[in-house]
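Bench notes, afternoon.
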Amino acid sequence: MIALVRYDLSMLVRGQSYIAPFVLYASAIVTLTTNDQGPLPRVYTASAMTIFICMLWLTVALINTEEPAQRAMTSVAARGEHRVLAANVLAALVICLALTALGLIYPIPAGDHTWSSTDLVIGIVAQLTCGVTGIAGGLVCSRIVVRRTGYAVFLALGLIGVFTLIRVLPPVAPTMVILGSDRPATEMVTPLLLNGVIAVVLLAGSTIAAYQVARRQE
């Protein structure tokens, strides 16, 4: 499995399709958090929102690096589509963790904040929640499920709009609301963890759905 994850990451790097979402993420973090003096959880709103969009984009790019015929050969060599898909998800999670670290650490020296370990926990949970949701959306928008690029783009934009604009729909919008609220940091942890659980459930569901679609197309 480690070899498959390394293969996925190397294919992404060689194809250079990671550059645009990485630049978007870094630019957003630098622009939106530099010289900020507000509460640290509010600063992490920008990181969480951006990581959701970028992980959706990066997951699609990661999976679509292989053409269908090439993916079929990879599945044979890996002894099953389920192993290839699992490696795709794990590779996306590795990227998500790297972006989370950047979004967590950069705002601290770049601004003027009084922070605690609870604030860091909030930042980690919020970003991972939104990043994992982005991975789930990316699986649904990838070539595995949607073969036509145009349809995939419209679906991705629709998912971004739905998850970020509908406040009652977990887990992204409620996470943004919690981070932007005036409640104490200690009271944010539990609802953020609940949204994190929902994000994991969404990822599991989208992975199963993508696998079922891939099996039917074999």
